[in-house]
Automatic annotation (TrEMBL):
Cofactor notes: Binds 1 potassium ion per subunit.
Species assigned in the record: Campylobacter peloridis
Domain of life per record: Bacteria
Matching InterPro entries: Carbohydrate_kinase_pred_CS, CARKD, Nnr, Ribokinase-like, YjeF_N_dom, YjeF_N_dom_sf
UniProt-recorded name of the protein: Bifunctional NAD(P)H-hydrate repair enzyme
Length: 448
């Protein structure tokens, strides 16, 4: 897991307390950037490298990197220079470095490095910089952003293949709107790795995955009996997802299924280990059933169209799995506010936390970077991709979470591991992403 921070402030404060001043942190940042560029330039013959420079700390990091690379080009965009920038600029000039005086032809470069703005930008990019970024986006150069792609979260920004995040992983890089612009996120060490026991926000990685561990001396009853309350198609997908992820028994409360592996029942048992419900389910009267009070639950899909869902939000053994539109409905039930999908997508962390502060259940806010939250604990999975943008993917996920609940995983642990596994299957799919579907997702669980 990697810790997630809103910004660098608390991290840099700790570094200063440990004896690292601003100049040394900048030097370390520039060295890290230079080393990363060297590594990526190996695939080019005599790589031609261009730095785009603003005039603040982000640009100063770039100037340090240029000094350590020794062979690079730099184009300064003419903004008012900070003291840090001026100092690093003078060092380079004393070494005989020449800055480009006019805008270069971006197609002539193999690597373009964005050191224009860091995380402090609070306004849209000027028209000249927007035009430059549009030209760069059309070039075949490898694009690297220093810390944060300039303009991220604005209408137009630098589109990176890699973002080298300085010091700590910033939350903004994991917003859904950032997915198409940050590329692969890498972390640079500014001098010290600090441990903070009070951290609550983490990015989950492949190595964090924990699945059901089946011993040789075990039977199907040891791994739970999961019930699915859904329609035929969605319910079968959820049921197969639960089976392939390790559930001992799976029953679908429906008249038929398209798989012989799923048992059919007329009703659920109060002895169910876990229940996933709502997927394509038209009659939601079951939400009023008193028998559900003692069973761990996954509530999905149509559940978010019923105000009866409010009765489950104070339970810590319930997992909710809304996509943004369903989450918008849920927020309207909870807070009597009409919050649009667009507003949610622009501030997913904010609205997830606002929900978590008020309720005990586990929230899985699905998206390009899925957020898993319970109270103050928050986790993000960003290794999924567009292959999951297919009908049925969410149904499979509900079954997977239910499988782990049935195997006695805590609700938060069940949600974290199911979401991570779900994303990793999509990541592992090497064929055309358009050909991925829910059945391939289920099949892919075998390969984790």
């Amino acid at each position: 897991m990697k810790a997630i921070f809103k910004d660098n402030i608390s991290y840099e404060k700790q570094l200063i307390e440990k004896g690292l001043d601003e100049f040394l942190m900048m030097e370390n940042a520039g060295i890290e950037l230079a080393n990363f560029i060297k590594k990526k330039s190996k695939k080019f013959k005599n790589a031609k490298i261009l730095f785009l420079l603003g005039a603040g700390g982000n640009a100063a990091d770039g100037l340090v990197a240029i000094r350590h690379l020794k062979k690079a080009y730099a184009y300064a965009l003419g903004y008012k220079k900070s003291t840090m920038f001026i100092k690093q600029e003078q060092i380079l000039k004393n070494m005989g470095f020449k800055f480009l005086k006019k805008q270069p032809k971006f197609k002539d470069f193999d690597i373009i490095v964005d050191c224009v703005f860091g995380s402090g930008l609070n306004k849209a990019l000027d028209e000249n910089l927007q035009r430059i970024f549009q030209k760069i986006a059309k070039s075949k150069a490898l694009k690297i952003a220093c810390d944060i792609p300039s303009g991220l979260g604005k209408e137009l920004c630098f589109k990176a293949d890699y973002t080298l995040c300085m010091g700590v992983l910033k939350e903004i890089l994991l917003e859904d709107f950032a997915k198409d612009y940050v590329g692969k996120i890498k972390l640079a060490n500014l001098g010290l790795k600090l441990k903070n026991k009070n951290l609550q926000n983490f990015l989950l990685e492949k190595k964090d995955l924990r699945c059901i561990d089946k011993k040789a001396n075990s039977n199907k009853g040891d791994f739970g009996h999961v019930y699915i309350l859904a329609n035929k198609s969605a319910g079968t997908l959820a049921g197969l997802g639960a089976l392939e992820f390790g559930a001992g028994l799976v029953s679908l409360v429906a008249k038929e299924s398209f798989s012989p592996l799923i048992m059919l029942k007329q009703d659920f048992s109060q002895n169910a280990s876990a229940i996933a419900l709502g997927m394509g389910l038209e009659n939601l009267e079951v939400l009023k059933d008193e028998r559900l009070k003692s069973i761990p639950l996954v509530l999905d899909a149509n559940c978010f169209s019923s105000p009866d869902i409010k009765a489950y939000l104070k339970r810590d053994d319930v997992v909710l799995t809304p996509h943004p539109k369903e989450f918008s409905r849920l927020l309207s039930f909870c807070f009597n506010k009409n919050i649009s999908v667009e507003e949610i997508q622009s501030k997913r962390f904010f609205y997830a936390r606002e929900f978590g502060v008020n309720f005990q259940c586990v929230l899985v806010l699905k998206g390009a970077n899925t957020i898993i939250l319970q109270k103050e604990k928050l986790f993000v999975v960003n290794c999924g991709n567009e292959a999951l943008a297919k009908g049925g993917s969410g149904d499979v996920l509900s079954g997977m979470i239910a499988a782990l609940l049935g195997a006695k995983f805590s609700p938060l642990k069940a949600a974290k591991n199911a979401v991570l596994a779900h994303a990793l299957v999509a990541k592992n799919y090497t064929k055309n992403k358009n050909s991925f579907d829910a059945l391939k997702l289920i099949k892919g669980l075998k390969c984790l």
